[in-house]
Amino acid sequence: MTDLTQGPVWPRPQWKWLATPWAVSAGLLLAVAMLDVAQFGSVFEFALNALLHTLRYVVFAVLLLAYLKATGAETMVARAFEGREVRMIFLAAMFGGLAPFCSCEVIPFIAGLLALGAPLSAVMAFWLSSPLIDPPTLLITAAALGWPFAVGKALAAVGLGLFGGFAIKMARNWGVFASPLKQKQATGCCGCGTPKMDAKPVWKFWTEQERVQTFRKEAVSNGIFLLKWLALAYVLEALLVHYVKAETIATLVGGEGILPIATAALVGMPAYLNSYVAPPLLAGLMTQGMSAGSAMAFMVAGAVSSIPAMAAVWSLVKPQVFAAYLGLGVSGAILAGLLFQLV
């Protein structure tokens, strides 16, 4: 008799490849070739030149990220959560700029720190600063938007961490956030791995075969990841420059004042654009009239969180901590945008 307890095994849909960045990029270029053949050469050349210009940064970023993963260097951030609370806040904000965690990957790390009893103020400082910048992101941002913007984002990362950390410390002095975690802890949300905090980095990773394999695996996977998403980002940037009127962008997020900056931050927060993809898109938007302050606010808010990260955070911490996390992220992004606009 046939065993039916496991249920039918449905074949994997063959059309899922259409949702890959490669397919979307090819589809957009094909649409231009079919609908506006006169502009196809210009659009393709723009995207290709932009990608080739960034390629040297991509290679260095891939090798650096693979080295950090192979050595286990991300475990160094655990040292930031030892000592006095004020010292922890400063170290957590600064170490956040070195840890290669996205807004999703940082969540299991945060869960472990809170479960071990680390103060929420220091954890929040790291939580807000870590997804904003790391060495590879700094290089990608500099390639697309220039070093002033990249340095400004790095300073915004540390500043946002300090802002969030001391805000939580003040609230805790008033008796708020005494017990931040829910009973059931969350895991990662975007397929990101859970970092280990109890190991020590091994800088000469080539002495261990397992770490060499990790280096090779991370270099290949991150290289493919960056290339496919940057290719899509530059195709979208080319389309923005060629087909979206500058007046439209300038009306929404251009000009002076807090309104366009706040709008950019509120739009950027739920968007799932990692820090490698956002710079090329913002370069195109700035070409069309987006202000520098709005671009900074969008990038900061978008890096701090996204809809998948929000879902994981909601399952991890209590509602008041979730609200503080979003409020600090948005307000910090707006403040970063205003300061960068002034500078």
TrEMBL record:
It holds the Pfam family ArsP_1. It is a multi-pass membrane protein. It is found in: Cell membrane. Keywords: Cell membrane, Membrane, Transmembrane, Transmembrane helix. Its main location: membrane. Belongs to the UPF0718 family. This is Permease. It comes from Tritonibacter litoralis.
